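User: Can you write out an input/output pair for a complex, sequences first and structure second?

Assistant: Here is one pair. Inputs:
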Amino acid sequence: MNQKLLNLRDIEFLLYEFLDTEGLLHRPRYQEHSREIFDATLATACTIAERYFANHNSMGDANEPSFDGQNLTMLPETKEAWDAFAEAGFLAAHYDFEQGGMQLPEVILRACMAYFSAANIATTGYPFLSIGAANLINAFGSEQQKSLFLPPMQAGIYAGTMALTEPGQGSALADIKTTAKLAEDGSYRLFGQKMFISGGDQNITENIVHLVLAKIEGAPAGTKGISLFICPKYLVNDDRTLGQRNDVSLAGLLHKMGYRNTTSTVLNFGEKQGAVAYLIGEPHHGLFYMFQMMNEARIGVGLGAAALGYQGFNCSLNFARERPQGRLPSNKNPQSRQVNIIQHADVRRMLLAQKAYSEGALAMCLYASSLFEDIHTADNQQQRQRAGLILDLITPIVKSWTAKYCLKANELAIQVLGGSGYIREYPVEQYYRDNRLNPIHEGTEAIHGLDLLGRKVIVNNGQGLTLLSNEILTTINKANNLDQTAPLAFALSKALNALNDVTSILSAELAESPDLTLANATVYLDVFGCVVASWIWLRQALKATEALTTKTLHENDHRFYRGKLQAARYYMQWELPKIYHQVALLKGFNQIPYQMQDEWF
Amino acid sequence: MNQKLLNLRDIEFLLYEFLDTEGLLHRPRYQEHSREIFDATLATACTIAERYFANHNSMGDANEPSFDGQNLTMLPETKEAWDAFAEAGFLAAHYDFEQGGMQLPEVILRACMAYFSAANIATTGYPFLSIGAANLINAFGSEQQKSLFLPPMQAGIYAGTMALTEPGQGSALADIKTTAKLAEDGSYRLFGQKMFISGGDQNITENIVHLVLAKIEGAPAGTKGISLFICPKYLVNDDRTLGQRNDVSLAGLLHKMGYRNTTSTVLNFGEKQGAVAYLIGEPHHGLFYMFQMMNEARIGVGLGAAALGYQGFNCSLNFARERPQGRLPSNKNPQSRQVNIIQHADVRRMLLAQKAYSEGALAMCLYASSLFEDIHTADNQQQRQRAGLILDLITPIVKSWTAKYCLKANELAIQVLGGSGYIREYPVEQYYRDNRLNPIHEGTEAIHGLDLLGRKVIVNNGQGLTLLSNEILTTINKANNLDQTAPLAFALSKALNALNDVTSILSAELAESPDLTLANATVYLDVFGCVVASWIWLRQALKATEALTTKTLHENDHRFYRGKLQAARYYMQWELPKIYHQVALLKGFNQIPYQMQDEWF
């Protein structure tokens, strides 16, 4: 089934109205850029996404990669997509010109990635991970490591992975068992097994650069003993030719519910003499380095969730507009014409919810990307630091809120299609299956809740939350001045107070009673996420309201802005008030799950 | 993966403590029964479910039925399961002894069906539909129809289906196009196409009896022109031997996301000379008759959802008990032993929610079955009528609340397992895919919301709601007398008032502004469902509290009742309060979705 990717009008709104992406052109790094270049880049991404990614989204789902113990078989379209992506320069697009890149702003690259994810989230997994791995080497690798591995990764000759999880420990990285032994030549030999490694093997690139977390023999226990290694599938000679096969092998593939065209692998390191690996940076600092890739990946997960939510929304909207069924309750004449189902209020509720979730999620992820951009290129140090503090704070939200609610969006897309939504003849069931991964990988909701409440809101004396609250208050003050947005501002203001209030109460108990205080951290994460999402929607509503006062507005634009405003109202009236019950649970330190005993189940 | 089906301790609690199933033994129909017979029947169901249904649950998912245009291929285990089910007498178990049945109470049959659904919801689809179709013929068919079709259906030689939906109209039965032409011999010829017909073709029985909705030529428009027909795959001679193939053929299979081992078919009726069909009852009364099967099926859908929720709960509970990972926040020593994840409060939250949803749903469905029983065998006419009014009212809840929240339970089961939950190596992702159908078939949530608010709460002068409210108040009054349950009773009392309040407000506007009043009917359905679920939990909590005062309680029972009480508290404190925001939307006649325009999307 052919359907459009995202919504160009919305992308333009988000980049150039909601965000001030054109403002980047004043920064030194982007002096040679222009809005035309940004738009042409987006158009290229959309074209490649449609031609090389969307073409096998359903096919890759029905014909997932297989491994017979010797050979890995994959759809050839996967490699074609990879090659098209690489040839268009997207693997290196954000690098400086002198590094062979296009010096593209982060937010434009992310918007491009949204197109690819919308077309085929599973195949997009390969470049997504590879970009992250290359960025990590670029940030923390030695000059030699960079010169050896970066150029072929940027060119798409090598791909990259992140190899963290092990069969025995899942999310608890402190307890990884993979060990690294120092060899005479200064490199290391890895021994251990990694699991759920996406793209851990494939047949689309000559080589695969695994970034592996392991513990050097004798390292301290826990996360403070974790080091980060480069461990290539094939060794690379100094002249960059491929050397012998490294002692890392595919033990097997895992069979996922969705995201099927991304291989999910079990990898054995060091079944023979040990897998040759090169330490990145300092020993025992591996988790710190890896967090760069993980944090990038978390925004990427949010963006992927948003793109899937968006595609489900597009599909169900089209269906609702074309499918006649039933009549309005007021019409009792069975001989009258049936209405298209978009005429049923409950269908519009399901579409509005999807719009609120998926457009809100995309806006949130692009905002996060603009912060990432600001960390590196904002005009002064204060602005950079500010962006860093806010992004650090909201990363759990950008990953978790998007994943949770865009999965819900896909659930609603199926419901709009009814029986048709449940069959593979339509794409929405695949979006739903694909999207179910997003609340799990790169940290489950539980982990992000603990990270947010247990660490992020309190580090740096709570500066992140103070800065974010001020940003939100600025929007509220602006919105208070307009009749259309004042009620929305009032609702958000009340919610922000509730969030700050509950944060104070919980923070005060954290040191004393960490287990009880953090028992409901996932609820706190959801409350926080809804407040941030409300803010994102208020900002959109504000821009829409301002635009609606323009006299010469084109009819299509008028409709677009009315839709934004209505979605903001939906979010504020239907979704945001849910937090008050959650806040009550949190403030009362509700102990029902905390007190529940294993034996009582 | 082998795992237990449901939880026998809970089944016994629900049947013999929560419900008074032993009380049925005083009714004339069950004089020859005993608790031992009930229990032995349940044990037989469990054994057959484990041996013949659970054995191919995953296999049937991975190897769904296929059709090459000529031949339909299905797993042979499906027929073995059907045969075992039939041989054990379950197809006829609820019929009177004189009809060849076991005169089994409805609630025991339903509990048996829960075992089969837990083992393999897709394969259970065949007997589930066949029982419903036979019941319909038994209730409304002529003596000749009954004598011709019932015995082979009861014996499992024929199966039955319900053929309502058509490609052009989905849920809007008023607009079906299939026509019936009267033939000279008094039978009819059907012409049309039906879609999403579960079990519409298969190779497990000699014959298939389709119960088809169609319009006799010249019938009135709308639902008042619908008639119900028996249309067998093979014609049946008067001596019950099979005659020629009828003009009904398999046009194709639909490929579902889950429930895969149930064929979902497109059937062509009358491509040649017309499909021979026999009118059931009076012309144009077909929808009335069909509602018997649909209402039965709706409780069945709820029960299936409950069983899937339950299996996900069982699986994730076992996983959480065995999987070590991480440490409590208060423990900063990385050298200490990891805890099993059930020690994490958020995992217990996810388990408690699953327990509340799935045990609550099973309790609700068995309660509905006890009402169905009372309609037919309660001691006096007043009790029978009372049961009928309450069951009619709550059928949309029994179908929808269960489907919605047990799907959510499966979503949580995946989350407890994390990455493992997302792969097909564990069963929870299949439960989730299977369960996604339940909020769709037998009426979407939207349809049940309209049915509940637009019809069921107002018909018979609202007697159903009055009776239900009185039942709930009786429980509240009892619960008020015990310290443990008084706070729960208070919470439910407040919620019941809110429900009655919002019902009055909406009902008053229904005639005047049906479209606006019904715009948020799905929200009303959810509110109503949460109140009923709270009541179901309060009743369980009451029984648990009473049992906990017993001095000689076995340790395992003690734990079981503590668990029931904690789940009730969870539901009352975490779930029920969500309705107040929804009630506010309803009372304010919130118009955000209602006013949203197609063009604004």
